[in-house]
Amino acid sequence: MTAPPVLDVADLRVSIRGDEGIAKILDHISFRLERGRILGIVGESGCGKSTLIKSVLGILSSGARIERGEIRFEGENLLAMGDKRLNREIRGSRIGFIPQDPYLALNPVFTVGAQLLEIMRWHAPKSVRNHREHLIALLRRVQLPDPEAALDRYPHQFSGGQRQRLVIAGALACAPTLIVADEPTTALDVTTQGQILVLLRELVEEFGLSMLFVTHDLGVVAELCDDLCVIYAGQSVETGPTVQVLREPAHPYTRALLACHPDRSEHFTGIPGLVPSPLKAPPGCRFAPRCTSARPACPERPPHYVAAGQGHAVDCILHEGSGA
Amino acid sequence: MTPLLELDDIHVHLGGRKRWFQPDIPPVKAVGGVTLTVAAGEILGLVGESGCGKTTLGRTVLGLQRETRGSIRLRGKTVSGARPRDARKLRRAIQYVHQDPGAALDPWWSIGHSLEEGLVITGHGERSRRREIIEQALAAVGLDPTAQRRYPHEFSGGQLRRIGLARILMLDPDIVILDEPTSGLDMSVQATVLNLLLEIRARRDLTYLFISHDLSVVRRLCDRVAVMYLGRIVELAPAASLFERALHPYAQALLAAAPRLEPGESRTIAIRGEPPSAARLPAGCLFAGRCPYAEPACRTEEQVLQAVAPGHEVACRRWREIAAGAPPTAAAA
Amino acid sequence: MLILKKFAQDKSAVIGFAIVVAVVFIAVFGPWLAPYPQDATMSHLTRRLRPPSWAFPFGTDNLGRDILSRVILGARGALKVSLLVVGASMAIGVPLGLAAGYSRGWLSEAIMRVTDVFLALPQLILALALAQLMGPSLESAMIALVATYWPFFTRIVYAETRRLRASLFVDALEGLGASPTRIVFLHILPNAASPIIVRATIGLGFTILVAATLGFLGMGATPPDPDWGLAISQSRTFLPGAWWYATFPGLAILVTVLGFNLLGDGLRDIMDPRLRRSR
């Protein structure tokens, strides 16, 4: 047997109880993140990306319930683990998190150094003797100008790109094996985004990390990610190596989405129709009402993957005969 | 033929004031000498990163921000030099669509009420005629008339863009300034909004000033593109030639950094660092501090746009050498 | 409607609303509700300081007047004073706040500095000084209250106007060529209405309290007016024996002020444009 994948999410279903009833935010999410790779999770707003991140980090709000499925991190099921152990051993130590808005991740009234060293005191591995030196070395590695002085400054004294570098260094400080990044470049300018993407790629190789990179931007995925998982309305509809999925998208939604991208589309058509409400979603494929090749069985067919090529899986009735 | 819109050496300084007993606050030079003409019917893209002055330039053209220096001509008639309120009257043919059209609507007013207000302000006829115009405008952007009864928070981002567009279409503009018309929209919605923009332009003979940081969209939509850096245009070219062969080092870096859907081409130029603050601009070429091709002379000589080909202008003294494949200098550290 | 539904769910706001409605009702129909309406002025020395009984549920005072009737009749005066004071404060404060918030430069500075000066005036001391100058009367007390209360409105309206002036929808209106009058009165004022209304509601209760304080100090209402503060003041010499004399007017003040405050807090929560729906 080979080593288990770093992260293996299988048939995850999460519902949230709200004012208007129970919403099935996630229904059938499955993907694998192999060691040393970057997996892009792509989906449009409201598809459940943030609920997925919260599920992986174990920080779902009190109204949310995991109804089904597993989240295995290095072979261990995180969902079966107690909160205490998650806090002590997993979150912030073996799984690092890079949020979308680094400004919100840093407390404005404490110096950057105080905050990052505090995190290290809790989560840094014992092998790291001198926390301060280690941190300065990391800040230098993420190309923050003048790292020694930076420790004594406050978050607002840094630009958006620099703050993101600080947060990345903070995530690395505790020697994680997995980094979960939530749209870390969305708020940044193009050239800064380019710099951060290059940096992330280098860090993954250098530190032997694996990364779950959540984004809505297919262009960023194309640049950065080895594999990708497309999510539509809480269902993972297609997973596979980035190059292959972008070149030969198998699911009608992936195709439609790629056709909307200005780099691809001939005419800007968009996808007609609306995303279904998670309050009353059909049991089968949630894309069926907007799908041009939908069949009568689609809204009823229970979701499951069909192989569409080497490491490429798709959840669509059209591929049922061909792949299996 | 006179161009539809001409900007001549526009400077805009923001803020800054004299204070008693304290040092004065110097103004921020948001736009520092922009000369530009816009031909009728074209889509001119204005691209650059945050803080490059593209939005300020748009607001100055609109007349909401007063130019510190320079002149603006609309159909050959000077419309600059007036107070903002009078400037808006002179420039009724220019209208603006906000980046966030939801926030550009009064939250307590229904859509119909807000739309009608634009007509009332510009003195459009009677109530029944106004209703007709509103319904036509809503239909033109693909919304049904019942939208009038609803309130801004009841609409999605894509629908709000349509409402924002309907709001100014009713006023029958010639030039529409679109400020980041697709930012924050999902890809599938963005496509329909872009499609609508093209369709309306064809139907109404509009000219667009398209402010955006999304190069993929600019590439597909615009006829000409002006690349801005710290308040100046560093390169102005037809979209096709710019994306094929940008000459200014900043334009090159910007294009190289934009994520593309087709992987393969590796990033050749990644510029380092971040732009200096617009409150303290360096002397000479503003990009020299980050430019991989900078020479000592770049830090002293101010750069102006010079024609390099018909319709293609660039503000770089070394463009010839860079185009010929000069290696980066060591000066960029 | 959504706004009513939301309001109905807020128990304390509903209680506040009920109290305010009751006080207004009593103020309007007081002379018909009071068991002995003539006791506003008439005294009955034969039945002085009777404890609460069926005939006089709140007891009688040192002049033999029915305290229940005087509490009921006092509501109108209390409400009139507070409405006049808050109304006049708004009439001064709101336009100044709009002008200071919308304009830039010296006008704005001048208005706000004058506001700061008035904000620094101690309310009671000003009231005492005015009473000295003009003789103690309800009018002098009201002038003192208005002089110290309008700056609160100016400050709130100023802050709201500043915020709204920077908002995108005002920007868009300027882009359409809307006149400042239109922007200020049709857009900024309605959007700033909720903090103004909340402040005014709480201000009504607050003014009743201060007016009662001034009455107690002998700087407000004059005998034989059925004033709540004055009643407490007059009851001092008969305490603790005639406990009912001070208790019931005091409770009237407490309940009324509480009612306005609860209502004000409740209004704050429902003043959200998102609760506006087309259907």
TrEMBL record, chain A:
It comes from the Bacteria. Residues 7-258 form the ABC transporter domain. One of its GO terms (cellular component) is plasma membrane. This is Peptide/nickel transport system ATP-binding protein. The keyword Iron-sulfur does not apply. PROSITE patterns: ABC_TRANSPORTER_1, ABC_TRANSPORTER_2. It is a peripheral membrane protein. NCBIfam families: oligo_HPY (TIGR01727). It holds the Pfam family oligo_HPY. InterPro entries: AAA+_ATPase, ABC_Ni/Peptide_Import, ABC_transporter-like_ATP-bd, ABC_transporter-like_CS, Oligopep_ABC_C, P-loop_NTPase. GO terms for molecular function: ATP binding; ATP hydrolysis activity. It comes from Enterovirga rhinocerotis. CDD domains: ABC_NikE_OppD_transporters (cd03257). It is found in: Cell inner membrane.
TrEMBL record, chain B:
It is a peripheral membrane protein. The keyword Chaperone does not apply. It is found in: Cell inner membrane. It holds the Pfam family ABC_tran. One of its GO terms (molecular function) is ATP hydrolysis activity. GO terms for biological process: peptide transport; transmembrane transport. One of its GO terms (cellular component) is plasma membrane. Keywords: ATP-binding, Nucleotide-binding, Transport. InterPro entries: AAA+_ATPase, ABC_transp_ATP-bind, ABC_transporter-like_ATP-bd, ABC_transporter-like_CS, Oligopep_ABC_C, P-loop_NTPase. SUPFAM superfamilies: P-loop containing nucleoside triphosphate hydrolases (SSF52540). Residues 5-255 form the ABC transporter domain. Belongs to the ABC transporter superfamily. This is Peptide/nickel transport system ATP-binding protein. It comes from Enterovirga rhinocerotis.
TrEMBL record, chain C:
SUPFAM superfamilies: MetI-like. Its main location: membrane. The chain crosses the membrane at residues 12-34, 81-102, 114-134, 140-158, 196-222, 242-264. Keywords: Cell membrane, Membrane, Peptide transport, Protein transport, Transmembrane, Transmembrane helix, Transport. It comes from the Bacteria. It holds the Pfam family OppC_N. It is found in: Cell membrane. Coiled coil: none annotated. One of its GO terms (cellular component) is plasma membrane. Residues 75-264 form the ABC transmembrane type-1 domain. It is a multi-pass membrane protein. GO terms for biological process: peptide transport; protein transport; transmembrane transport. Belongs to the binding-protein-dependent transport system permease family. This is Peptide/nickel transport system permease protein. It comes from Enterovirga rhinocerotis. The lineage of its organism: Bacteria, Pseudomonadati, Pseudomonadota, Alphaproteobacteria, Hyphomicrobiales.
